[in-house]
Amino acid sequence: MAFFLETLLGGLMAGMLYSLVGLGFVLIFKASGVFNFAQGAMVLFAALAMARFSEWIPKFTGLDNKILSDLLAFAVAGAIMFLVAWLIERLVLRHLVNQEAATLLMATLGIAYFLEGLGQSLFGNDIYKIDIGMPKDPIFILDKLFQGGILINKEDLYAALIAAALVAALSLFFQKTSTGRALRAVADDHQAAQSIGIPLNRIWFIVWCVAGVVALVAGMIWGSKLGVQFSLATVALRALPVVILGGLTSVPGAIIGGLIIGVGEKLSEVFLGPYVGGGIEIWFAYVLALGFLLIRPQGLFGEKIIDRV
Q1: How does pLDDT run across 90-130, given as a tens digit for each residue?
Q2: Contact call for residues 289 and 241 (beta carbons, < 8 A)
Q3: Is residue 309's pLDDT more than 70?
Q4: Considering only CA atoms, which of 224, 221, 229 is closest in space to residue 24?
Q5: pLDDT-derived band at 10, boundaries 50, 70, 90
Q6: What is the pTM of this model?
Q7: DSSP states of 65-122 as a string?
Q8: Which one, out of 44, 144, 177, 275, has a CA that is 20 to 30 A from the CA of 66?
Q9: How far apart are CA 280 and CA 278, in angstroms?
Q10: DSSP states along 230-269
Q11: When comparing pLDDT for 153 and 289, which is higher?
């Protein structure tokens, strides 16, 4: 029982990180109605900015307080992601208002390649480290209930708590604020939203800024765990089954989908892996997503599309 709970908790903590990355996809889709293939590049670019400014600020300012220097690096990296969002809206999206979804999709692919190249040019292509002070030592909990207790990695626990707090804040933003409601209106119909006075350009700028902050936090967490390298852009691919499972238009769906994928991966790898030779964790999420596409294409919480003729 203790081993099962240990695996379950590990899956839940991993699932929160998947939810955080998947949330970036949902944010852009709700605003523009297009799948944002640049999300992985945004995570990579934000992580590179955070890693490099964490090195540069103490070096060039002489600041020896790590907490303060990390906060400054986070603020600078956040400002850079805001600038990236502004440039994307100003130079790309503003000229594609009311265009076909395929056009917007190709635009996000172009943005992805541009950000990867720009990140390499500005910050280099080495493997960098992000140290934001999250403890890496494991701890044992519930040792009074189970012999030996349950082993939990502190870094995974802290990362899951940070991701959960950000996901909760964004959920409240979309459900309780006028900007969140305007964003949902824009996602339903660009032209109708404009006709009632919703400024499309401002909504797109806001949502890309929010997606940039999400990418920064996700990049910090994954960079702390895996190191900042260009393969980090593929982390977003791990979140594709999350948004398929939860629904492309649902913020709660991204949360639930991430938890299901995280738990499913861990449990299947541990309990089914020995019987099939292992490696289930790599493809389990995609097989599950494929099953949902066949049975319920809109996902668990996505809006069912009804065409009237």
Answers
A1: 888 778 766 777 787 888 889 988 998 898 888 887 888 88
A2: yes
A3: no
A4: 221
A5: confident
A6: 0.84
A7: -HHHHHHHHHHHHHHHHHHHHHHHHHHTGGGGTT--HHHHHHHHHHHHHHHHHHHHHH
A8: 44
A9: 6
A10: GGGGGHHHHTHHHHHHH-TT-HHHHHHHHHHHHHHHHHHH
A11: 289
Domain boundary assignment for the chain: 2-295
| Bridge partners for 152 per DSSP | 139
The phi-psi region of residue 229 (left if phi > 0; otherwise alpha if psi is between -120 and 50; otherwise beta) is: beta
* Burial of residue 144 (number of CB atoms within 10 Å: 0-12, 13-18, 19+): exposed
- 252 in Cβ contact with 174 (< 8 Å): no
pLDDT score for 250: 79
Rg (CA), the chain: 20
**Chain centroid, CA 155 distance in Å:** 18
Q: Does residue 279 contact residue 273 with C-beta atoms inside 8 Å? A: yes
Q: Residue 228's beta-bridge partner residues?
A: 128
Q: With cut-offs at 50, 70 and 90, classify the pLDDT of residue 303.
A: low
CA distances to 16, 239, 282 from 262, in Å: 8, 10, 11
Phi-psi region of 138 (alpha: psi -120 to 50; beta: other; left: phi over 0): beta
Q: Which two tokens stand for residue 159?
A: 């990362």
Angstrom distance (rounded) from CA 270 to CA 58:
43
Q: What does the pLDDT read at residue 247?
A: 82
Residue range 235-239: mean pLDDT, rounded: 75
